[in-house]
Please model this.
Amino acid sequence: MRTSTLMMLLAAPLALAACDSAQETETMEDMPMDGMAMEGHDMSAMDAVDGAKTASAVGTVTAIDAEAGTITVDHEPVAELGWPQMVMAFDASEEVRGDISVGDAIKFTVEATDEGNTITAITKQ
Model:
C-alpha cells in the first residue's frame, strides 16, 4: 500500500503537466511558424516591436513560397530590431520577390510590426 501511495504522489505532477492548456499550434492563426529553424536560438533575446520599425539586414534565401507570399531567410543579427541570427519567413509582395531564388545572398529592408515582418526591398549581393 505504501508503494502505491508513493507512485500516485509521483505520477500526479506528471499527469498535471500533461494537461497543458496551451493552444494547439495547428489552430493558431498568428504568424506561421512552420519552416522556421529556431532550435538553438535564445528567443528571449529578441525585443518586442513597438509600432513599425524599419531595418536593413543581410542573409541567404532558404525558401520561397509564392502561394503564401513569403520568403524565408537565414539572416545575420539585426541590431536595430534586437534580433539574433536566425532563419525566419517574411511576407514579401510578388514584385519584391521578383527574380530572387533559393540560395541567393541578399541585402533586404524589413518593416517589423506587431502584426508581422515584411520585406519591402531586396537586392542580390
Helices lie at 2-18, 94-97. DSSP finds two helices and five strands in the chain.
